[in-house]
Amino acid sequence: MRVSKFAKVASVALAFGLFASTPAHAVDLQGSGASFPALLIEACKAPFASATDHSFTYASSGSGTGQANSDKAIGDFWMSDGPYTASTKRASLIHVPLVAAPIAILHNLPSKAPLQLSASTVAGIFSGKITRWNDPAIVADNNRSVTNVVYRKDKNGNLVKNAKGDPIVLRTTTKKSFYTLPNQKISVVYRSDSSGTTENFTAYLSKSAPAVWTKAKNKVFKDSFPGNINDMSNLGRVVGASSSNGVSQLAGKTPYSITYAEVNYATANKLKIANLINPAGSSVAPDSLGVSAFLASASQDANGWLTYDYDTKEKGAYPLGIVSYMLADTKYPDKSKAAAVKEFATFILSPKCSQQAGEELGFSVIDGELLKKSLSQVAKIG
User: Fold this and answer.
1) Are 269 and 249 spatial neighbours (Cβ–Cβ below 8 Å)?
2) Residue 172's pLDDT is what?
3) 93-107 and 77-80: which strand pairing?
4) From residue 246, how far is each of 30, 111, 243, 252 by CA, in Å?
5) Taking the domains of the chain in order of start, what are their residue ranges?
6) Which of 30, 36, 132, 186 is 20 to 30 A from residue 165's alpha carbon, by CA?
7) Which of these ranges, 112-121, 316-325, 348-357, 364-373, has the smallest mean pLDDT?
8) Which residues pair with 148 in a beta bridge?
9) Is residue 134 within 8 Å of residue 143, measured between CB atoms?
10) Can you tell me the distance from the alpha carbon of 79 to that of 87, in angstroms, rounded to the nearest whole number?
11) What is the DSSP letter of 255?
């Protein structure tokens, strides 16, 4: 079925004229930007080379660096976890929704019981208002009735959607959760660098818990922090580290800590993954199905940018699912580079990458109407 699924995507790609003929010589592409999609991009490096004879290198340095490099045309493609709207953006650049995945809340608690947190509680923890693990808000989140959702899936494990594009729910279950929380100080680890992950994380906090997280989203965590991050009560307890790898490593070495990063950083750093309590009251894990259910409620404009519906009442939606965009040019001076970038984007979106390599790493498949919109953006590369 994987072959037939790929053939289906290929037929869509052909409809948009995306598979250009193989160039007379292989092309070596240079990419840079967001660390969020880096593991998937690297995992698909060898399969892409095998399928196309092209190669690429990708410097995972953060969305801010990718955006700056795109301004100066340093390299051939750039990744950004948020829409790039600066006045310095070149007019010929477009956004391609290329990689989907959840931002996970990772923690270093000793208990193996699954932790679950509401948006207001997450905002309280990361704003410094909730400082101990046995705070009443965390206790209430973890000692309650919990709704879990089971969706209909196809043979490839993807969501089956109705005519409106909504995921089809097979059943819901309800059970009581119990969690004994320790009387320990919470150590908060945040991204200190300019980061699309931080921009999406703070957007979730400001939209989902505005009474607690009172400042607007920002790529720099300190600039979105609703208070004085250097207050005496935060010093040594709320600390920063650069990159997803950096925050995860620091949290892994710090008992009773919490941070935000991609799911795949949890295992390597012996961290646990929290569920989020969504607006429908369901406790949802940061997995492919939850992200797909959340993205199904997003809207997309002519630029390719997505607007997420943080208030969606979709029962199984994981409300911290995001898309990482590829910034690509519609006017490459070297047309062989343009053709290779187009092939690269099409390959990353295909099941050969997004499903066969991505799902094991915690990424989600872009499919349905969003896939069609992504491929229509790819078609503009030239």
Assistant:
1) yes
2) 79
3) unpaired
4) 24, 23, 5, 10
5) 2-100+322-378, 103-292
6) 36
7) 364-373
8) 173
9) no
10) 18
11) T
- Phi, psi (deg, nearest 5) at residue 142: -110, 5
User: What is residue 159's DSSP assignment?
Assistant: B
Top-tier CATH class for 2-100+322-378: alpha beta
Same fold, 2-100+322-378 and 103-292: yes
Specify whether domain 103-292 bears CATH 3.40.190.10: yes
- Outline where DSSP puts E strands in the chain: 28-33, 55-60, 77-80, 93-107, 116-118, 145-151, 169-176, 187-191, 238-241, 257-262, 272-273, 275-277, 283-284, 299-300, 306-307, 321-329
The torsion angles phi and psi of 63, rounded to 5 degrees, stand at: -60, -40
For residues 316 and 293, the answer to whether their CB atoms sit within 8 Å is yes
| pLDDT band at residue 72 using 50, 70 and 90 as cut-offs | very high
One-letter amino acid of 193? D
For the record, the structure tokens of 381 come out as 């590369």
Structure tokens that stand for 38 in this block: 């880096």
Q: Please state at what angle helix 335-349 crosses helix 45-52, rounded to 10 degrees.
A: 120
Check residue 169 and report its DSSP letter.
E
Taking the CA of residue 162 as centre, how many other CA atoms within 13 Å lie in the half-sphere pointing to its CB? 7
The sign of the dihedral angle between the CA atoms of 217, 223, 228, 233 is positive
Q: How far is CA 192 from CA 221, 231, 345, in A?
A: 7, 17, 30
Q: What share of the chain is helix, strand, coil (3-state, %, to 5)?
A: 30, 25, 45
Is pLDDT at 196 greater than 90 in this prediction?
Answer: no
Q: Residue 77 — very low, low, confident or very high, per pLDDT cuts 50/70/90?
A: very high
Q: What is the DSSP letter of 282?
A: B
Q: Which residue has the higher pLDDT, 74 or 61?
A: 74
Say which amino acid occupies 290: G
How far apart are alpha carbons 315 and 328 in whole angstroms? 35
pLDDT band at 3; cut points 50, 70, 90? very low
Cβ–Cβ < 8 Å for 31, 348: no
3-class secondary structure, 355: coil
Written as one string, the DSSP assignment of 126-157 is HTTS--BTT-HHHHHHHSSEEEEEEE-B-TTS
